[in-house]
Amino acid sequence: MKTHLNPPGIPAPAAPYSHQVMVAGAVRWLVVSGQLGQNGDGSVPDAPLDQLALALTNVSVNLEAAGMSVADLIKVTIFVTVPTESAERRRRLEAWLGPHRPAMTLVQVAGLAAPQFSVEVEAWACQDEPIS
Q: Exposed, middle or buried, 35 (CB in 10 Å: 0-12/13-18/19+)?
């Protein structure tokens, strides 16, 4: 069972996420390795927000391959090498997540796997259904 909480006494989330997600019971977990903003043909757009869109799509492809969706996300970590426009980044995340609010962290790093990459997204997901 997943419970998404924003405890009283701390600031409300500043973007589409929950401060905590508690998981109890037998569940099916999926850990998605860092997904880059890269097309299937290997091309990489220059704009960080375009890379973010592709990285989110690549996370979604991983979720779908496991029989899951963004509604099963527990934790999302976004790594960026350059600050992106906060309002537009939030808009894109809200569009991708819909009403779902997983725990989320944004980290600015010095570099990723190769110099052309400016965004990477990793995720944890689980389903409340018992393991069969």
A: buried
Q: Which of 20, 131, 25, 21 is nearest to 72 (CA)?
A: 21
Task: Round to whole Å and give the CA distance between 63 and 57.
Answer: 10
In a domain, 74, yes or no: yes
For the chain, 132 residues long, give each residue's pLDDT as a single digit of tens.
Answer: 777 878 787 778 878 888 777 677 778 888 999 999 998 888 999 999 999 999 999 999 999 998 899 999 999 999 999 887 789 999 999 999 999 999 999 999 999 999 999 999 999 999 976 555
Taking every pair of C-alpha atoms in the chain, what is the biggest distance, in angstroms? Answer: 47
Q: Which two tokens stand for residue 124?
A: 């944890």
73 found inside a domain: yes
- Bridge-based pairing of strands 103-108 and 73-80 is parallel
The residue segments making up the domain with residue 65 are 2-7+28-127
Please report, for the domain that includes residue 55, its CATH number.
Answer: 3.30.1330.40
